[in-house]
Design brief:
The protein is mostly helical and about 200 residues long. The chain has six helices and two strands; from the N terminus they run H-E-E-H-H-H-H-H.
Length: about 200
């Protein structure tokens, strides 16, 4: 039970941090990217670990829970942004300018997360139930190879298409692919940190 709780908490925390950081567009190694990309890639491998310890149903529940929590977070931030500053408290940082939600980015992020992570779940499940429970690193690599580009494509065009120049949007897309791919490769060994309940196909 403890590994499931820990990895679920890590997954949801990474999702929340990524959604907040996505409000800022930064440059890194010559690429434009939303700052959420700096932490978001780890969620794909964390989802695979959740799947391993909690099964397909558990993984899907965590995906939808993270989406609901992110939506609730954005709603709460919106509510706070609508409340007036207290002049008696003296000068305050521009909270509204930083954390007030940009709903297009919020919805694009949640849509991309849910779609890509559900696809990741199906591919991961197909691998362990129809291919083999061996080569755990391959199940992570295979599922992420599909879900990472899908997530990036949905998010960048839903969030920034028609708002930023197309060249900038594609730059964000390729930066996402490169960074997420690198994180996938680096995080592959973490799938071996927990024990699952999978049985060999057939």
């Amino acid at each position: 039970m403890t590994p499931t709780i820990l990895v679920t908490a890590a997954y949801i925390a990474a999702q929340i941090l990524a959604d907040i950081a996505s409000l800022k567009i930064v440059t890194l190694a010559g690429f434009s990217m939303d700052a959420g990309t700096l932490i978001y890639p780890i969620t794909f491998t964390l989802r695979d670990i959740v799947h391993k310890v909690a099964g397909k149903r558990g993984a899907r529940m965590v995906i939808f829970a993270a989406a609901g929590i992110n939506l609730a977070m954005a709603g709460f931030f919106w509510l706070v942004s609508r409340l007036p500053y207290d002049p008696g408290a003296g000068p305050q940082p521009d909270w509204n300018g930083v954390l007030a939600p940009v709903w297009r980015i919020v919805m694009a992020s949640i849509l991309a997360e849910v779609a890509a992570e559900l696809i990741d779940t199906e591919i991961y499940q197909f691998w362990v139930s129809r291919v083999t429970v061996r080569f755990q690193w391959m199940r992570v690599l295979t599922s992420n190879a599909v879900s990472v580009p899908l997530d990036s494509l949905i998010f960048v065009w839903a969030a920034f298409g028609g708002v930023l120049p197309a060249a900038t949007v594609w730059s964000i897309f390729w930066a996402n692919i490169l960074l997420k791919g690198a994180v996938t490769l680096l995080s592959l060994p973490t799938i071996y940190l927990v024990r699952g309940q999978e049985k060999s196909p057939g």
